[in-house]
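so my prof wants the structure for this chain in the tokens format not the other one, which i didnt know existed until like an hour ago. anyway here's the sequence
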Amino acid sequence: AWFAQKFAVETNPLQGKIEAALPGANCGVCGYPGCSGLAAQIVKGEAPVSSCPVGGPAVWGIIAQLTGKNEEKLIARRAALICQGDKNTVQQLGDYRGIRDCRAASVLGVSFRGCVYGCLGLGTCEKVCPFDALYMNEETDLPEIDWEKCTGCGKCVKVCPRGVLVLTSDMEQVQVACHSPAAGKDVRLICKKGCIKCQLCVKTCPVGAISSVDGMIKIDQEKCTRCDLCIEKCPTSSIVYLGKKAVSVA
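here's what i got, hopefully its the right format
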């Protein structure tokens, strides 16, 4: 007890208040060693108030008030799939018999599906999700995401070798569900729902929110009014609306 008192390290009282506001899960998805570690970094100004994806906006707001920092633009993000290349939609080149891991299959450099940019469907994202918010649909071999459970920790996004999982805010609802930069004629040959770069969406958008950048169709979420005209005009249904409770773009 004497040693504990003699060598005790004084901590900033603010750190204790921030730690008390955090969920206490000590899950580490923030990138720091537990909630106390994150609280210490926030006090030092080395971590933003929105570092805890599990706590979400409610916790971020409390921490922003405690630290006196602006809590504007603290937007919760959730994972979303930007690929519709399921086994019934994209060309199948053969059966995969290797390790059931997307990273392992990607290292081989050979795709068993026609699209070399699309989802491999081997479920690595499902394995790394610490909140059971993501599971593989056996009928499509594509991941489905439960936005009610998803905390936006980003682990599935980081582990995906094809980059078909992204973090998106609740307001970013209209998305191009195709990750392929290939020319339209090549996409048409291998995928029924791939973006063929026809640019009908660009011409249709009444507010100029859609553009073609380096051969890829991009949607400016700040300009988008969610009128859904681009969705209606898209000949391959590669533009989709991601509702808050929608778990898949397939």
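also thought this was worth mentioning. Confidence is low (pLDDT under 50) at residues 245-250.
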